[in-house]
């Protein structure tokens, strides 16, 4: 019996059941943003990995294209034009060192990697099937892949017994694969069918890249178990120079290797799918453009069939095609960007060191993984109206910080991801005064 016909479907309703993070984001949206001159008491929002380091250069470049309405008022196909696919394929061949030449027909565009995660989830898994994800990971993966699709996640816990287990380094590859094996076997015992593993490389939120050896071992694991390997490489070029914060440990950190570049026996290239987009490395998140790079013709066609709702706009298509085709400009952009990113990283890590805030050393990405667990002791009791009645200590701390004017992403555990680029860090209030 339908009680109230005006209500959304059960699955629609499930998406609006109480979600502390979403509720918190709504509260944050209502607060005036920080501005040094006009609203110095406003909110410093550090939750988004936005890249505004090269905004001036990008704005001048887009203006120099001198686009006219006739350039963007007619349709391109839903996954983008063939010129865009060619430009992306060339770019990937130039920067991702693929083991096989990537061709335009391997590329499918959509309005952002978020949309492609949803599409891939639908096209790789049947209802009830699962994707494996190492923890900690990008907080929106589950949201983006599960909101519309009845799929599950099987967590591969890399932070439970050993908070600082380094899953990226080659020397831990066997230990990491063992964790995947254990989680896989447990899922099988529970009757869960796993279809894929999802990697974020470079990793949001840890800012680290998987070693080639680790990628190979994970790909072999996928080969043995018949799983797809999906690699979100949206931060591929957000590399920080090796000695950006003077730490000796940093020099041992691996630089970026794409899943497209691994080539060893037992790996079926049809099972390797990479996601890339213009939101992060190029600071163009408002263009809403993301790309699936896959050699799996049938999977790509199945994704394409549902790409009308994620239609690429002609405007974005034209801008990004021009940018990618201008090899001199984008190569110089990347060089300058990495220098500025390294400077921002040094500024931030220096700030954290000076204020005795522990963080996980990193060499990629737009964020740092900081550890505020020592402050959790102030939030051990039950929550209250001000900090969330049924909130965990982490959520209470998040809410407390929000009230003080700083908004951070809480993890499922005790650490927080701190986005480093939203504002120059010296303008941020002292977080250690808790
Ligand atoms: C790992 C990762 N994938 C995807 C996205 C979203 O990308 P897009 O703007 O292309 O939807 C983000 C944004 O923060 C991200 O961090």
From TrEMBL:
Gene3D superfamilies: Aspartate Aminotransferase, domain 1, Type I PLP-dependent aspartate aminotransferase-like (Major domain). One of its GO terms (molecular function) is transaminase activity. Keywords: Pyridoxal phosphate. Pfam families: Aminotran_1_2. The keyword Protease does not apply. Residues 59-410 form the Aminotransferase class I/classII large domain. GO terms for biological process: amino acid metabolic process. Belongs to the class-I pyridoxal-phosphate-dependent aminotransferase family. This is Aminotransferase class I/classII large domain-containing protein. It comes from Penicillium malachiteum.
């Amino acid at each position: 019996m339908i009680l109230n016909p005006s209500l959304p479907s059960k699955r629609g309703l499930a998406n609006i059941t109480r979600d502390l993070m979403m509720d918190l984001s709504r509260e944050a949206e209502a607060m005036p943003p920080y501005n040094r001159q006009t609203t110095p008491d406003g909110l410093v929002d550090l939750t988004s990995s936005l890249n505004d380091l090269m905004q001036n250069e990008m704005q001048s470049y887009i203006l120099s294209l001198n686009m006219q309405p006739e350039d963007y008022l007619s349709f391109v196909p839903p996954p983008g034009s063939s010129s865009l696919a060619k430009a992306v394929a060339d770019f990937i061949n130039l920067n991702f060192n693929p083991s096989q030449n990537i061709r335009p027909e391997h590329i499918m565009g959509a309005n952002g990697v978020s949309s492609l995660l949803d599409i891939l989830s639908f096209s790789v898994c049947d209802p009830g099937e699962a994707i494996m994800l190492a923890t900690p990971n990008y907080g929106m993966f589950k949201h983006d892949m599960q909101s519309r699709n009845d799929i599950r996640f099987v967590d591969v816990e890399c932070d439970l017994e050993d908070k600082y287990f380094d899953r990226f380094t080659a020397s831990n590859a066997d230990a990491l694969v063992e964790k995947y094996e254990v989680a896989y076997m447990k899922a099988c015992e529970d009757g869960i069918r796993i279809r894929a593993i999802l990697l974020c490389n470079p990793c949001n939120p840890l800012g680290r890249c998987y070693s080639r050896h680790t990628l190979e071992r994970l790909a072999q694991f996928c080969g043995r178990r018949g799983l797809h390997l999906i690699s979100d490489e949206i931060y591929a070029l957000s590399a920080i120079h090796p000695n950006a914060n003077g730490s000796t440990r940093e020099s041992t950190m691996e630089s970026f290797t794409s899943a497209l570049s691994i080539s060893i026996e037992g790996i079926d290239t049809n099972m390797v799918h990479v996601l890339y987009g213009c939101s992060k490395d190029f600071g163009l998140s408002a263009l809403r453009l993301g790309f699936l790079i896959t050699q799996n013709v049938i999977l790509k066609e199945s994704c394409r069939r549902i790409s009308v709702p994620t239609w690429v706009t002609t405007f974005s298509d034209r801008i990004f095609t021009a940018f990618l085709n201008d090899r001199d400009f984008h190569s110089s952009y990347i060089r300058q960007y990495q220098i500025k990113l390294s400077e921002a990283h040094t500024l931030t890590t220096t700030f954290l060191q000076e204020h005795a805030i522990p963080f996980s050393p990193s060499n990629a990405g737009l964020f740092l993984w900081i550890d505020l667990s020592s402050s959790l002791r102030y939030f051990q009791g039950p929550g209250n109206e001000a900090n969330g009645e049924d909130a965990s200590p982490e959520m209470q701390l998040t809410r407390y910080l929000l009230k003080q004017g700083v908004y951070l992403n809480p993890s499922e555990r005790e650490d927080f991801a701190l986005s480093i680029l939203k504002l120059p860090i010296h303008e941020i209030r002292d977080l250690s005064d808790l």
